[in-house]
Amino acid sequence: MTLVVGQTKVAGVKIIRHIAEMQATATALKRAGRRLALVPTMGALHAGHATLIRRARACDAATVVSIYVNPTQFGPQEDFNRYPRDIEADAALCAGESVDIIFAPLDAEMYAGNAASTWVEETALAKRLEGERRPGHFRGVCTVVAKLFNIVQPDIAAFGQKDFQQLAVITRMVRDLGYPIEILPVPIVREADDLALSSRNRYLNPTERAQATILWQALSAAQKLFATGEHRAAPLQASLLRTLQLVPAIRLDYAEIVSAATLEPVTDVQTGAVALLAVYLGQTRLIDNAIF
Fold it and tell me: Which residue ranges form the domains of the chain, and what is each CATH number?
């Protein structure tokens, strides 16, 4: 289904497409004494997004789910054009979770003239890992999230821990720019076989889908080794790599153990450190992580 300008409801959920209307609605809700909770998404919603929505709704706030496939966070060879878009299915999920508003803005308003001359960029936590391999990605993420914060005026915003670096970058941006917003980190939601839920999982063919479970197996093996008392990063990282190599089709992008505070590599792994994985299966790039 294509969402058309002027369409006000899909699956019974109020749809707002224009920035001015969203700002006016947010202002009216705040004047009425309501708090606002934002769940930023690119659509293709799944049970992981539903968990984000439930976490936001538990804060006794009017819940806004933004659905916007942000062009500025995709690289030239990435999947912007084929990224799944299904506003009717997304709205049905939102209706089932009692979402108050879907904000699905227009490209022409979010990026006037299909371009932007003003950017928001975090330069400490965004420089490595995803930032290094996807140049410009976090500049696009920070810019669109800052726009959404300015438009929706949330008191609370929920982000998933599957995108661990993104969560860290947005949390730092909120701190540094003084946004009066509480960031809610929401744990990873997994399938029955422990594959982390992701909108990109639908790109996997049946063979790749079965092979993808090796990510959690690798993370789990490293956690078990840590639980035996091994706190040296090198053996723990070697464990990650050994397990991933059990699936020859896996192409490694990175497998690192880092400080949760700085995202820099550690040599001595303590409780709270994070193992981060990024791999390719076929043409699909998957990420996952686990906190020791």
Answer: 9-186 (3.40.50.620), 199-291 (3.30.1300.10)
Number of residues written out for the chain: 292
Q: Given this model, what pLDDT does residue 245 score?
A: 98
3-state secondary structure of 182: strand
Tell me, yes or no, if the pTM score tops 0.90: yes
The answer to whether 227 and 263 are in contact (CB under 8 A) is no
DSSP 197: P
Cα distance from N-terminal residue to C-terminal residue, the chain? 43
- Half-sphere exposure of residue 71, counting CA atoms within 13 Å on the CB side? 13
Neighbours of 189 (CB within 10 A): 18
- From 73, 51, 75, select the one nearest 63 (Cα to Cα): 51
- Tens of pLDDT, residue by residue over 97-150, are 999 999 999 999 999 865 668 899 999 999 999 999 999 999 999 999 999 999
DSSP characters over 230-273: --BHHHHHHHHHHHHTTSTTEEEEEEEEE-TTT--B-SB--TT-
Model confidence pLDDT, tens digit, residues 155-185: 999 999 999 999 999 999 999 999 999 999 9
Known catalytic residue: 49? Answer: yes
* E strand segments, the chain: 9-10, 13-16, 36-41, 62-67, 101-103, 156-160, 182-186, 250-258, 274-281, 284-291
Of 18, 46, 49, 137, which is the active-site residue? 49
**Alpha carbons 106 and 112: distance in angstroms, whole number:** 10
Q: How far apart are CA 9 and CA 91, in angstroms?
A: 9
* Gyration radius of the chain over CA positions: 19
